[in-house]
Design a protein that fits this description.
heterotetramer, A: 333 residues, Rossmann fold, 8-stranded mixed sheet, 12 strands, globular, C: alpha/beta, Pyruvate-ferredoxin Oxidoreductase, domain 3, 4 domains, 6-stranded mixed sheet, binds thiamine diphosphate, binds iron/sulfur cluster, binds magnesium ion
Chain lengths: 333, 333, 622, 622
Amino acid sequence: MADTQLTKKYFASDAEVKWCPGCGDFAIMNAVRSGMVAAGKPRDEVAIVSGIGCSSRFPYYMETYGFHTIHGRAAAVASGLKVANTDLDVWVISGDGDSTAIGGNHFIHAIRRNLDLNYVMINNKIYGLTKGQYSPTSEVGQYSKTSPYGVLDYPMDPLKVAVSLGGTFVARGIDKNMKLNEEVCVRGALHKGFSMMEIYANCVIYNEGAHDKLTNKEEGANFHIILRDGEKMIFGVNSQYCLVQDGFGVKAVKVENANQADILVHDEKDAEMAAILSGMRPDNGLPIALGVIYADDRKKTYDDMVYEQIDAVKQKRGRTMDQIMQEGHTWTV
Amino acid sequence: MADTQLTKKYFASDAEVKWCPGCGDFAIMNAVRSGMVAAGKPRDEVAIVSGIGCSSRFPYYMETYGFHTIHGRAAAVASGLKVANTDLDVWVISGDGDSTAIGGNHFIHAIRRNLDLNYVMINNKIYGLTKGQYSPTSEVGQYSKTSPYGVLDYPMDPLKVAVSLGGTFVARGIDKNMKLNEEVCVRGALHKGFSMMEIYANCVIYNEGAHDKLTNKEEGANFHIILRDGEKMIFGVNSQYCLVQDGFGVKAVKVENANQADILVHDEKDAEMAAILSGMRPDNGLPIALGVIYADDRKKTYDDMVYEQIDAVKQKRGRTMDQIMQEGHTWTV
Amino acid sequence: MAENAKLTSAEQIVVKFTGDSGDGMQLIGNQLTALAALDGNDVNSLPDYPSEIRAPAGTIAGVSGFQMCLGDHKIYTAGDAPDVLVGFNPAAVKHSAKFVKAGGMIITNSDSFTEKALEKIGYSGNPLEDGTLSGYDVKAIPMTTLVREALAEMEMPIAAKDRCKNFFTMGVLCWLFNKNKQLVLDFIQQKFGPKATKPLLKVAQANTLAFKAGLNYGETTIMFQERYDLGAAQIEKGLYRNITGNDAAALAIAAAGEKAGLQPFIGSYPITPATDLLHYASEFKDVDLVTMQMEDEIAGICTAVGASCAGNLAFTTTSGPGLALKTEAAGLALMLEVPLVIVNVQRGGPSTGLPTKTEQSDLLQSMYGRNGDSYMPIIAANNPADCFDATFQAAKIALKYRTPVIVLTDGYIGQGSCPWKVPKMDELEDLKPYVNFWIPEAHKGEEYVSYKRDPETLARDWAIPGTKGCQHRIGSLEKDETGAVSHDPLVHQQMTEFRKAKVDNLAQVLPEVEVNGKKSNKILVISWGGTFGAVKGAVDRLIADGKPVSGINLRWVWPFPPNLGEIISRFDKVLVPELNMGQLSLMLRAKFLVDVQSLSKVQGDPFREFEVIDKVNEMLGE
Amino acid sequence: MAENAKLTSAEQIVVKFTGDSGDGMQLIGNQLTALAALDGNDVNSLPDYPSEIRAPAGTIAGVSGFQMCLGDHKIYTAGDAPDVLVGFNPAAVKHSAKFVKAGGMIITNSDSFTEKALEKIGYSGNPLEDGTLSGYDVKAIPMTTLVREALAEMEMPIAAKDRCKNFFTMGVLCWLFNKNKQLVLDFIQQKFGPKATKPLLKVAQANTLAFKAGLNYGETTIMFQERYDLGAAQIEKGLYRNITGNDAAALAIAAAGEKAGLQPFIGSYPITPATDLLHYASEFKDVDLVTMQMEDEIAGICTAVGASCAGNLAFTTTSGPGLALKTEAAGLALMLEVPLVIVNVQRGGPSTGLPTKTEQSDLLQSMYGRNGDSYMPIIAANNPADCFDATFQAAKIALKYRTPVIVLTDGYIGQGSCPWKVPKMDELEDLKPYVNFWIPEAHKGEEYVSYKRDPETLARDWAIPGTKGCQHRIGSLEKDETGAVSHDPLVHQQMTEFRKAKVDNLAQVLPEVEVNGKKSNKILVISWGGTFGAVKGAVDRLIADGKPVSGINLRWVWPFPPNLGEIISRFDKVLVPELNMGQLSLMLRAKFLVDVQSLSKVQGDPFREFEVIDKVNEMLGE
Ligand SMILES: Cc1ncc(C[n+]2csc(CCOP(=O)(O)OP(=O)(O)O)c2C)c(N)n1
Ligand SMILES: Cc1ncc(C[n+]2csc(CCOP(=O)(O)OP(=O)(O)O)c2C)c(N)n1
Ligand code: SF4
Ligand code: SF4
Ligand SMILES: [Mg+2]
Ligand SMILES: [Mg+2]
């Protein structure tokens, strides 16, 4: 099938989309479709696996193979699916709760194994589907149905954890920036290895405005930076801030106060830099990093290694089933 | 009870220790007992929680309250136990498999919450109890009963992950270095917050020599560095190597080739430095970091916050049970 | 003028509200519940949500419902076919009209029957006009217009005004059911009145106006030919509160902790339809209830086990898929022999199934869903208010026998509500005697032995960390009396038997089941949990009709009450209506070798009395 | 000279080896098995490990055992009381002597009866001398001395020489049981001989010398007055292999994949006693078996579900606590209606329980341990070799009905071994017809509908990702025929019934159970899984004794075979011996309303024939 036939619409199913009007998930679906277009596989060679959550309803809206599984297990199901058939373009769509709460273990191990999956984590910092409980990405003090007096748990930063696990592609988007999300999803789709894409989304019902600090027209740009490989890290409403190195970390300073040569240049392949960039937070006076934070596909994928090993064993031992069955202590009656 | 009464022997139960002769776990038990002595609680105010594994047999050998739970769940059980009674000195003893495989989710979330637990992860890079399968900390290519042709999964570095989750105390020991392990356990015991102590151990039966590279008499010192707060990071059999900064990371150079001022000084409170130190590996030409990598107890513990919140709500609402029951739509018949 | 509207006295009225999910059906339902209850009626209700995702407004899929039954006698269910349907839009009417009693009343907002709205649900004509609803007594009221008119003078956004439609409707119903309007006016003041903040005050005023407009509408139009008058039910004196099962369970958890002198503790993970329990309980910090929302269900139960080991009174709350995840750790609690209460609010299964729908299909999972031979008592709540007592009793048994106990409720009970006679804390049973920690002071000269058992209950001696000199080790492996790991074949045999006997023993102290009706008869109908109401109602009616039928209800589903076998043996046939494929039936068949018939329904919906009645009649050959 | 040792012909001999865990009891047991089998006997064996942690050498807790029964007829169990005990040290003798038949033979290494060794096990005197073992025929052989002497010329570490003790013992036994010594000599060459590496060659030589020394010892000492001679059993011709149940299951997985034309896939997590299955299967990369050792059991089953969705033939392997963790995801496979085989090697429970001991206590968990009404076929393997067929059959049914299937084995079967007639791949049933993927080419003009069912099997139409034009969505929520989520009450009712009927239907094609003995009789003994051997042996002996007893075995434990009810009805009493507290009994009671008696044993140990015989006699009032 010629790539030219692949359009976003081609990947849209005709099921009625049931997210609340205004939900951030709509924008993300659009970006994922662009990613699929870029990946270039016909839709019957694409599989989407999701867990349970508002975000996990995603597969129904896509004209691909779709598996809406159980809460938290999408990464594990997708791991099996991908290894079973490496020809498929496999996407995982999961929420912050689905990925980092009940699904935390599969999530970290899938990253570690560098399976060739495209993993989109829609982070609205709340459990939407179950009507508003805090999640592991919720902020300290956040009010929710289960934290009427404020959350006590320190939040987890999934991307920082992903970097610490040797993730080979780590990127962040935000519902309101559709262009950026497309970029992220296209890059993720083309990356060979585990593509970790966190996309902030607004849950208009249970966590309205969670990302306002970043999306706010007047000031938002002061609190996030859009990274581009090889470009200086400058941000702010008037591009007035930049990042410079500070010990093993970074700090944000006014461009006018910085030595031009000190302004850090983003290097997608620098894992140590990624460890810092992925964890930046306004609480620490640093902008949230958006865009591709880290990307390096030199590490072999688990799924490829599985078949390389199989081939190697075939070369080396190459037994048939009959031979295997006839091994061991045998005798003839 | 006066602290002077607390000795290591005081914490030893008289159950027969059933580890294989030569197992690394013996040495670690000794260090943990020192930690308990330092913590200064009488043994009937100490609780040890473990999962399942050779290492998890630990509680039986300690004259304290002991809970040998189920595989992978020690951190979760201990979290409840500690929150339920914050007066207890609570230790978790767990294996690499117990902590990072089946228990991975509880492990990461306990760190994130900064519960005041002393967590000792005995890492022999193998499942000992079940007779020798690879674990998430096993090396690529390692042979084991379930990887007869070599492990394909990239290993996880638990301490690096711990740092990425905001762990407030991160340290590493190794069975052969008893003094260091004592230091680590004593510091961990005294730390307020989640004390993550990874101790490398040798499983003489199923992964003999896994840490030989580090313990080897001739060359071992070239492959690890013992960190001490405020001291220069110098290592090697003849203290011939040092660490210097290299971008956001570090590199090891000969001391003679280094500018004295460039030799890095360890700072236990530098989380960004910790992110680098915790992940150093000989594969990357860097020494494994031993000792206290990170320690900072300025972050409130989850368990303390629970009771602060309770007190605050009592202040603010202060309802009695009868009052609560009589709230809502009520009427009298 | 409707002065001539006849006041018919009724024994019970079934009302159903349907509308968009966002329209607050539950709210208006609760208001009518409170109003009727205040007026002395007994009330029972049943909410009916659409799917878990907010479906688009105005569509059939988006219809949310709330049914209730008001009566002058004890009411056990939300009733069968509604006498009155209040359907707020065309979708709601289309969705629910078919349930209404033949000739029953349908009240609707005629303003909502726009062409666009009708098109959305695939109507070409207007059902209010084209005879579609000819079998019903349709009251098409231009609610939007009337409310907007009534609030013409108020400076409020139109949307806010439209929201007052509910109180307009309350006004109509207050008139229609001949209720005391002052109760509603007081309620509005209480909720939105002087003590409230500024914007709410305005809401109070608007709602008052809308309510009065509704009252007037009833009184002044000729639309209603008939009004209903319900006598007061014989209700025990006391303070009442309308409560959902989840809220009642949350209260019981806090109350049991206080009565046991232990800190109550919940380790949990949100899951529909159990979440509300956790929501409500999370507010009880001022009475020392600790709630830990954990990373998953396994951590939820494991923290609870840990808290129990430390001497808290520990609970974990969940629904089916969550229970499936908790089974391994439930086995840990069982081996440790520590008290633990697992509250399972059942929903439609298997797998994610029908998360918002009710079902009773976790009974066998609760009984047998653990590795090894593992026995746990199971108690089932009969209705929302009963969740308080069931949970409280579970805590008592968990403490007394040092055992995990499962409380089964379901989506219908957990989210549904009914009046609850609020107990005073000092009327509740003191649970301290069951705690009975082993302390050296009470056992001079004795040494603590962790699995030494009370000869009667078989509960083990329990010393918690911090108890002087009692340090000891316990675990999930099989062990001997001292807690030391044992692989001795006979120790395992004996410990297994102890664990079984402990639960069997509980049966000895359970109250005997009481039979509703003759003690010996043709048919015995057995209810458990959520089927209680429909079965009780049905059996009452069958008995009233002179049918040879009796009923019993199982509160403890395991172990079976001591006289159950004997009761069963006195009947020709046994019927068990269940919202599953016959799970209690299976247990009864295995235990009593009786050919129990199962009336099975798995449609996400509780039984209606008539379904039970029809089945009984069929069995009677009628 | 022992020339006058009498050669007694025997029908069967029970031999038990005991020694330190490190001493290789399993190895020597397997060697004798192979030797006997090669010589035409039938053999059945039972290993007996100590606890999971390597207990200190020389202690009772550290004793490891291996029992076997050799016979001239079909042998179903490892026998009751041993005729011959080979106990390698004092602890081993102390531990096992009590099991030996009165007057039976105890062979031991007298060199190991040092003062220190005796002290370790709390003996003050030497039991070889002080009459402790006077009821037995004790052969105290200075094995260490004799072996060292025999190997005096060899340059080897003493420890390595001592390890040849096992082949010395084999020599003694080879003589004692009148076996063909060439078979052992060949075996040594095969294993350590020319094709082996240098150090092994030396081992071959040493073992050969030790073996011959043992043979000579038997022949030349006057210690043995009697030798045994076993005739050859009537054994089907073919190539045989001694195999453990876990290994057999591993082979079946790979074989089923090949016969189905699908890539076989295992998603798993290690757990005793199922790990060996995964170990062995991990070696089969050359026949395309993919094994993913995952982070936990949940991931293990979930990857298998994922692989199944992609069209692999997927398996997950575990034991009790692991099964408990997998139940939620098993429900997912059930809702998706994809094939999946769950192999559960049962162990002692509840909770971590007795990890290394056998039990059958996961039956009810397998049946009912999932949320919702969820039905899965369950097949049980009767013995180690049978694990091959049971697993292969499970794969077939999983494919044919698109359903998860549970295979139950247990620690005894999984780790025990017996001779297995190795099938040729082309003799095995072709599974391709059951795969039957939906492909557009085969359904011209039709559109793919994901839950459209085969009218006979009710299996759904199955199209896998990559199939042109068949993209579709399925999930864990209740859904209609198209796979679209549905909350329609009747859809849920119907789908639940379909899922039930699918499994019930399987019963129709199951082979009828065959009765061992009279078709109608006083007592029917029912075995399943691991009780097969003891029950078969016991019933055979009872029948031979003229007792009114018959037996049947259930291979599919769910659904029950079609004629089971009818068979049961022809007996006065039904007895079910089980290594649990009566789990199959419960299912039979519920289904057939028959007062099944349960012979229950939870001691980590399989039944002995005499236990069944005693119970039957008791029931017969004898
Ligand atoms: C085993 C299990 N536990 C809990 C649930 C309930 N549950 C469904 S989705 C969800 C969380 C959803 O949050 P998130 O993943 O962030 O998705 P969102 O709805 O916010 O997109 C929970 C707790 C479930 N379905 N299954
Ligand atoms: C639910 C469950 N799954 C699996 C097991 C089997 N199991 C017991 S311990 C263990 C791994 C032990 O490895 P580790 O934690 O590294 O401890 P070690 O023995 O090496 O000290 C496994 C897989 C179990 N007991 N329970
Ligand atoms: S509840 Fe929140 S996350 Fe869910 S669909 Fe609505 S807006 Fe989106
Ligand atoms: S098996 Fe390994 S980890 Fe376990 S006790 Fe022996 S040496 Fe230690
Ligand atoms: Mg979310
Ligand atoms: Mg380990």
